[in-house]
Amino acid sequence: MKNFCRKEIDELGHLFKINLINSCSGYKSANLIGSKSKDGIANVAVFSSVIHMGSAPPLIGFILRPNTVPRNTYENIKNTGVYTINHIHETIIADAHHTSAKYASEVSEFDRTSLLQEYKKDFLAPFVQGSPLQMAMKFKEEYLIKSNGTTLIVGEIQNLYFLEDMLEEDGFLNLSKGKVAAINSLDGYAIPTLKERQTYQRPKTIL
Q1: Which of 27, 74, 131, 192 is the most buried if burial means most Cβ atoms within 10 Å?
Q2: pTM score above 0.90
Q3: CA 7, CA 9: separation in Å to the nearest integer?
């Protein structure tokens, strides 16, 4: 197998190192986070760092890059306290990826792509129309990651929306039925297919 030690990793070219380290952790969730500024401008941006943090209460986290430059998503969430998480469908991959471009805060990514915003139950932040799974989120807390200056944002699910045929009898959401994308590194998109599910495991008894 090919090997890079820590010293060799540090000496790699900038882009090569970014691609390498971003891809070595495996496939990641592909989500669009929707928010709205205090001036009413809708923002949507792609994130590959959304993680489950607990079910009772239902908490979801995601990582924000260091706030050394303006971060519209962060500012909007802190100002309004709400945002949405929307899974990326296979038909909107190109537009979803374009939201990673750095637009000024007064420009809405919805106006620069074919993505459409929609609103549900008077929730302030925009959802992405056509997303097979959408979450209305309330900001709960944040934690600075001192090692690299990133921030962990923790939110609580207020409302959960999904295509009905994705739901299995035991509550399992079969994302492959929704043609939900996953991200490899920063720009590699895949549509995973569920191969099998395993039962809840208990320790084996040795006879």
Answers
A1: 131
A2: yes
A3: 5
